[in-house]
Amino acid sequence: MFKLRRYLVGHYAECVLAPLFKMLEALLQLLVPLVMAQVIDVGIASRDASYVLWHGALLVGMGVFAWAISVTAQYFCSKLASAFGTALRDDLFRHVLSLSRADVERLGRTTLVTRITNDSQQVQDGLNMFFRLILRSPFVTFGTVVAAFLVDGVEGAALLVAVLVSGAVVMGFMRVTTSRYREIQRGLDDVLLATTENLEGVRVLRAFRREDAERAAFSDAAGTVRDRQVSTGDISALVNPLTYLAINCGLIALLWFGGLRVDAGHLTQGQLVALVSYVSQALVELLKLTNLIVLLSKASACAKRVNEVFETRPSMADGAREAELAPGEPALAFDDVSFTYAGGAGHALSHVSFALAPGETLGVIGGTGSGKSTLASLAMRFYDATEGAVRVGGADVRELTRESLRREVSLVEQGATLFSGTIESNLRWGGPDAGEKDLEAALATAQAASAVDGKGGLAAEVEQFGRNFSGGQRQRLAIARTLARRPGVLILDDASSALDFATDAALRRAIARDCAGTAVVTISQRVTAVRHADQILVLDGGRQVGLGTHEELLEGCPVYREICESQLTAEEVAR
Fold first, then answer.
1. Of the candidates 321, 325, 324, 347, which has an alpha carbon nearest to the alpha carbon of residue 336?
2. Pick the CATH number of 332-574 from 3.30.70.260, 1.10.1840.10, 3.40.50.300, 3.30.300.160
3. Per-residue pLDDT in tens (0 to 9) along the chain, 575 residues
4. 520 touches 361 (CB < 8 A)
5. Residue 538's beta-bridge partner residues?
6. Euclidean distance between the first and final Cα of the chain, in Å?
7. Secondary structure class of 527 (helix, strand, coil)
8. Which of the listed CATH numbers 3.40.50.1970, 3.30.565.40, 3.20.20.140, 1.20.1560.10 matches domain 2-310?
9. Residue 530 CB neighbours (<10 A)
């Protein structure tokens, strides 16, 4: 947790005031037994009612003052913890967004969600309790020992031994449980993964009637977490009884020797009552300290997991140049590009080269697993090429800032994702400054105007993930969102797969008409979607096996001809 101290910057006043107010409250608590001793030894012994009443009023005043101090301390602790947690989660989320897609895939989406939510909350709770008790509990515990020594040395020694034994028990259990809490948090990652997969794939799950199997798998993951929590709880449950045992043994010794010393006249009755009160205070504070240690053990384990994310450096450094489609330069070019996924057995793309000028169209076609989507990811710089260079406007994408690159190059993927809100708010993801007419024009080009009108216009509600729209409507809205940005390079990665042939053809004609200066890359498995492109790139097993027009590839590329013959009639192929 010490590595996260930077989030306390600017809150030093709360860091000082919170524990100081708690110590002041503890000081008042230590004075109470001494006042009670005077009430017994002086007021009650001499039957002085005014003395008893006056000191009783003093105790009430001390209680009210201690309550006000405690509330103030709690306010500062809560304010500090809330500010710390907010800054930590904001910075953690910002850092996750700076990671490349490869980094996120390596860490895992589910564990990142757990670390941003559950882990950061555990750290915040630990910090809150730390500033509330880290000074108060030790101060009261050792303050009672000191006060006991001041009252009577023999009794103070008995209490000191009990406190030292209890402290050793607490520290020993802390060393044992910290690693166990890290295992519990890792188990929560597995539970979240199972939950996310089942909720996102609920249709597939029901289609294949996998409810029982998935329920059993979830029970295994949850059962593992339960077993770890139970075993850790069993160990932690021993702390309080052992603390009670040590302190009560000290109390027995105190009463035994204290009674003898009262009989001998070396100790007054009021002093003995004060010593018993100090033992009770030490017991309560040790139990609080025990719970603090347990909470800090959890927080420490979670803080290490959070720091693992912070210590993950982005594998792709941001460039310094602004992306610009310079005149005379290709809008998008691949120069002998090869790419291999981390842990991959071979190249996902191998020696791919092409150049696409502004206003031209490139069709990319190939079988499943041929590297079409990988090509789109490299153009967006979701990954960096293993060999060769991807260029936008003549500049290597590794030299460009990601913000400017993705302002010039926009991608629409097959799995269209919409966000809860309205149609207008979704479109403004692409064009934040676009006017209403610009948004309507983007909808018209994307063939989504009829879907929007049927839902109630731009103000129509969009539910989470766009579930109140069909697959085709989501795809068209996703295309409209990208067109609202007016990108220099538009990549459609099978973005019209849910559209019928007539709508798909109308979409391609509208893009050609309304986006005349935009370089368009159409990735598809349909020959009809790419046959009219200025260039067609044919991929097979990640290799470039053809580049040219429809007619040229029919003559010189067997793979392309085979694809055409599998989808078109002989007359359509020849036409």
1. 347
2. 3.40.50.300
3. 566 778 887 888 888 888 888 888 877 877 777 777 777 777 777 777 787 788 778 888 888 888 888 888 888 888 888 989 899 999 999 999 888 888 888 888 878 888 888 889 888 888 888 888 777 777 777 777 777 777 767 667 777 777 777 777 767 776 777 677 777 777 877 887 788 778 777 778 888 888 888 888 888 888 888 888 887 777 767 766 776 676 677 677 777 777 777 777 677 777 777 777 777 777 777 777 777 777 777 788 788 888 888 988 888 888 888 888 888 889 999 999 999 987 776 788 999 999 999 999 999 998 888 889 899 999 999 999 999 999 999 899 999 998 899 889 999 988 888 888 888 888 888 888 888 888 888 889 988 888 777 677 788 888 887 888 888 888 888 899 998 888 899 999 988 888 888 888 898 889 888 888 899 999 998 888 888 899 999 999 889 999 999 888 988 899 999 888 888 777 766 66
4. yes
5. 365, 546
6. 70
7. helix
8. 1.20.1560.10
9. 26
Q: How is the chain split into domains, by residue range?
A: 2-310, 332-574
Q: What is the dihedral of CA 412, 417, 419, 422, to 10 degrees?
A: 60
Instruction: Name residues whose C-beta falls within 8 Å of residue 360's C-beta, 6 or more positions apart in sequence.
Output: 331, 519, 520, 534, 535
Tokens representing residue 547 in the block: 């580049």
